[in-house]
Amino acid sequence: MRSKFQRNLLSNKLIKKLNERNYKTDIKIMTDKIKYINPEGLMKNPAFSQVVVTNGAGKTIYIGGQNSVNANREIVGKGNIAEQTEQIMKNLEIALESCQAGFDNLVKLNIYIVQGQDVLAAFQASQSYFAKAENPPAITAVFVAGLGNPEFLLEIEAIAFVEE
């Protein structure tokens, strides 16, 4: 296993090589274990990161697709994407906390939105949760014809990383 010095040296060498090759990058290094990178040439957006790199000892947490079902197995917010998003965010928070993690540990989200839904309403409903993170995760969002239950309007799966 490499020492912290060796890992930092390798990271610095990588950044130097990218710069030598004329790749400009906006790199935010949270720790020596997680880097959020927005390379020059890719769109920069404060809502998501283009690349997230985890390195070294830690645990990676994979959270299966969360929908708007609460602990009582009730669908929250039938027909209302904002209410469903709020429940999904609560579910993600519970899942993260069960692993001693939080929104700041998220590195990747996959978001599935049923066609015809109001994306802006979902985005606004999620913002109070994502405000808890210093850096936004990498995000992929896709429109789908439907989800596992016709009442579901949105589903989010997540990957998080917690240092050891």
Q: Whole-Å distance between the termini?
A: 14 Å
Helix content: 25-40%
Spatial strand arrangement across the major sheet: 4-7-5-6
User: What gross morphology would you assign?
Assistant: globular
Structural class: alpha+beta
**How many whole angstroms does the radius of gyration measure?**
18 Å
Mean pLDDT: 83
Tell me the strand percentage band: 25-35%
Order of helices and strands: HEEEEHEHEE
Q: Summarize the biggest pleated sheet.
A: 4 strands, mixed
β-strand number: 7
Number of helices: 3
Description:
With 164 residues, this protein is an alpha+beta fold. The chain is built from three helices and seven strands. It has helices spanning 4-20, 81-97, 119-130; strands at 25-29, 34-39, 51-54, 58-66, 106-114, 138-144, 154-163. Strands 4-7-5-6 form a four-stranded mixed β-sheet. Strands 1-2-3 form a three-stranded antiparallel β-sheet, covered by helices on one side. Helix 3 links the parallel strand 5 and strand 6 (138-144). The longest helix has 17 residues, at 4-20. The model is unreliable at 1-10 (pLDDT under 50).
Structure at a glance:
The protein is α+β, with helices and mostly antiparallel strands.
SSE inventory with pairings:
Elements lengths: L3 H17 L4 E5 L4 E6 L11 E4 L3 E9 L14 H17 L8 E9 L4 H12 L7 E7 L9 E10 L1
Helix pairs in contact: 2-3
